[in-house]
């Protein structure tokens, strides 16, 4: 018989060490495999608006292209598979445990090595994302400033010096300039005091002597100079600065179009630049340029070319270009600080400063009532935000993709210390760049399958509709009637609960029907506002319907980017969102001209918004439900 010998304590210790090392190697392998899958999702979950941002998509191609394409969809729009999550336990020789995502708040979403080390969402992430959300304030100021700077003013043809004492109505009767653009060509020295006195006594009945002068020379000429109402709570605006009235009134829309053209252009290129040069670098370069251009616009008005409208709109275009870059880079950075389900939440609560900024600028505009002083006030906050360079770090996930491990280690250690999390003793070995693959996807891949064709066509229509309606509300507050300052403040106020409610509901239910409902309700509100158009006695009711429309369209604008990111497969998500940005940019360029519709017919503006909102709500019905709701039951023909 063979005797059974018990292993010695030394053999036990050796065996335990080998088992621990094996567990650590498995953890590292699983971490690196899953990280390459999740990085593209992190970078593309959040998208924007405007302008306030500020609201378009985030095109994070650097991270998206450096992934192993093990995500829940294939590039042809195939069905989602089981997402691999990281679930690890502490090794006996580690200083602390590396917790499972199920122990945190991000259990419903995939995680990566950065999330394991510093946590899905802690004090550090909360502080950094809140600081980044402050960059939305000057962006919103700049995009909504035209509501006050380009406000319409009452005007009339300029009176001769010796007739400045005449009342405006008397002057209009005397010069026959009731349209404020043309007047009779008269020799004003022949206007006697008797004619003026008779005209003042009977404004609607021109005296015979004046009729004689009109008959002698009945030529009508265009006015070359104008005077403006000074007590209208508008103050000095683009209109009074450059006489943008009569045949030059369209230039106000051109000025705003140039700004939004810059926004649209920046929305297309900012994602590429932030991927190439880094989120933090692009954020602060854009913030510095935004401050310079914003302050330079004010300073230039006091210099030689103060009256050069061409120079002004050029500066506005550059301001729009860098403003949207601030929005995109800051939003990407905020998303990449967090992990799990907090990516979506962080991207959405990054929008909260927008409505607050709308309310703030309405108060600032009311107090200044001068477009130059307003421009100075909204440019000042950018100076202080530039000092956040010394507080806000670069995205650790972007740095890891770029192989800058030493910088990643410093950020991870600082974040873990702030979050009071202990790092494993060998955590440096977990920080390995994912395998990089070059993506060759282009625009045509969005039409590769019936599934992709359907969602692409739908989203192009929806993004155009949403941006046209959202900014149609914001940038036309001065044309809706009532007090423009109060209307703008109320429009900002109703957006706060809209964002909060949308955040709560989409975390509980699917997005398809809710998204469709927001657009349909906005369309119904616009229809009701169109019905009440032109009835001054119920102006309050019209404004109420407009605020209901602003509430619902703001909720929809919060849902749209998240919905888009979820339905596009990972491999072509950046291409899809980039295409949606083009449609959004086209809507932005057209938005300033919506105000001209009311000059054609009073009901035309709100009727157009009604039609587009109802159309957008109908198109949403052709989209599938969000990814999580469709995982278990999806027709085989869509694979």
TrEMBL record:
Q: Where in the cell is it found?
A: Membrane
Q: How does it sit in the membrane?
A: Multi-pass membrane protein
Which PROSITE patterns does the protein's record reference? MFS, SUGAR_TRANSPORT_1
Q: What GO molecular-function term can you cite, just one?
A: transmembrane transporter activity
Coiled coil (UniProt feature):
none
Q: Identify the InterPro entries for this entry.
A: MFS_dom, MFS_sugar_transport-like, MFS_trans_sf, Sugar_transporter_CS
* Signal peptide region: none
Recorded hits in SUPFAM superfamilies, A to Z, give: MFS general substrate transporter (SSF103473)
- What keywords would UniProt list here? Membrane, Transmembrane, Transmembrane helix
Name the residue ranges with Low complexity bias: 87-104
The Gene Ontology CC terms held by the record are:
membrane
Domain Major facilitator superfamily (MFS) profile, by residue range, is: 173-628
Q: Where is this region: Disordered?
A: 1-28, 65-107
User: Could you list the residue ranges that cross the membrane?
Assistant: 257-274, 281-307, 313-335, 347-367, 373-392, 451-473, 485-506, 513-532, 538-563, 575-597, 603-624
Q: What is this protein called?
A: Major facilitator superfamily (MFS) profile domain-containing protein
The species is Glossina brevipalpis
């Amino acid at each position: 018989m063979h005797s059974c010998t018990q292993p010695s304590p030394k053999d036990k210790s050796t065996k335990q060490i080998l088992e621990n090392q094996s567990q650590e190697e498995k953890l590292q392998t699983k971490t690196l495999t899953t990280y390459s899958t999740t990085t593209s999702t992190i970078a593309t979950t959040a998208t924007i608006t405007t302008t306030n941002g500020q609201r378009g998509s985030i095109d994070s191609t650097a991270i998206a292209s450096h992934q192993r394409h093990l995500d829940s969809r294939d590039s042809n729009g195939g069905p989602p598979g089981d997402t691999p999550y990281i679930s690890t336990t502490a090794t006996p020789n580690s200083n602390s445990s590396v917790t499972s995502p199920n122990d945190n708040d991000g259990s419903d979403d995939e995680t990566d090595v950065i999330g394991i080390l510093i946590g899905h969402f802690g004090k550090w992430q909360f502080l950094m994302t809140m600081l980044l959300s402050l960059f939305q304030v000057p962006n919103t100021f700049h995009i909504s400033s035209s509501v006050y700077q380009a406000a319409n003013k009452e005007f009339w043809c300029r009176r001769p010096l010796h007739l400045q004492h005449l009342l405006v109505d008397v002057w209009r009767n005397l010069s026959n300039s009731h349209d404020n653009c043309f007047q009779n060509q008269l020799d004003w020295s022949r206007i006697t005091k008797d004619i003026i006195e008779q005209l003042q006594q009977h404004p609607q009945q021109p005296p015979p002597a004046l009729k004689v002068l009109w008959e002698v020379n009945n030529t009508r000429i265009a006015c070359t100079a104008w005077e403006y109402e000074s007590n209208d709570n508008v103050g000095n605006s683009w209109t009074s600065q450059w006489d943008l009235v009569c045949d030059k009134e369209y230039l106000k829309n051109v000025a705003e179009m140039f700004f939004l053209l810059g926004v649209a252009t920046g929305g297309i290129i900012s994602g590429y630049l932030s991927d190439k040069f880094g989120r933090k670098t692009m954020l602060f370069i854009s913030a510095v340029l935004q401050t310079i251009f914003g302050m330079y616009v004010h300073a230039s008005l006091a210099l030689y070319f103060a009256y050069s409208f061409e120079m002004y709109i050029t500066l506005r275009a550059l301001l729009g270009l860098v403003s949207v870059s601030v929005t995109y880079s800051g939003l990407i950075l905020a998303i990449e600080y967090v992990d799990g389900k907090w990516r979506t939440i962080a991207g959405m609560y990054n929008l909260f400063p927008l409505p607050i900024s709308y309310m703030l600028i309405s108060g600032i505009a009311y107090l200044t009532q001068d477009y130059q002083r307003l421009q100075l006030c909204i440019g000042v906050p950018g100076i202080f935000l530039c000092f956040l360079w010394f507080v806000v770090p670069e995205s650790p996930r972007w740095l890891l993709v770029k192989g800058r491990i030493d910088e990643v280690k410093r950020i991870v250690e600082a974040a873990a210390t702030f979050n009071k999390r202990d790092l494993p003793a060998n955590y440096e070995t977990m920080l390995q760049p994912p395998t990089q693959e070059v993506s060759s996807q282009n625009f045509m891949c969005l039409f590769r399958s019936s599934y992709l064709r359907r969602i692409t066509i739908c989203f192009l229509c929806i993004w155009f509709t949403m941006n046209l309606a959202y900014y149609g509300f914001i940038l036309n507050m001065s044309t809706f009637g009532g007090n423009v300052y109060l209307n703008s403040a109320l429009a900002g106020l109703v957006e706060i609960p809209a964002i909060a409610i949308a955040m709560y509901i989409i975390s509980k239910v699917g997005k398809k029907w809710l998204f469709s409902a927001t657009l349909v309700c906005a369309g119904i509100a616009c229809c009701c506002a169109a019905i009440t158009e032109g009835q001054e006695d119920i102006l309050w009711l019209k404004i109420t319907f407009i605020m209901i429309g602003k509430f619902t369209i703001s909720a929809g604008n919060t849902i749209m980017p998240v919905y888009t990111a979820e339905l596009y497969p990972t491999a072509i998500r950046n291409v899809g969102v980039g295409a949606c940005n083009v449609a959004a940019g086209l809507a932005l360029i057209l938005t300033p001209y919506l105000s001209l519709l009311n000059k054609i017919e009073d009901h035309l503006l709100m009727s157009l918004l009604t039609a587009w909102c109802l159309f957008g709500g109908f198109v949403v019905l052709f989209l599938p439900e969000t990814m999580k709701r469709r995982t278990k039951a999806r027709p085989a023909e869509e694979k």
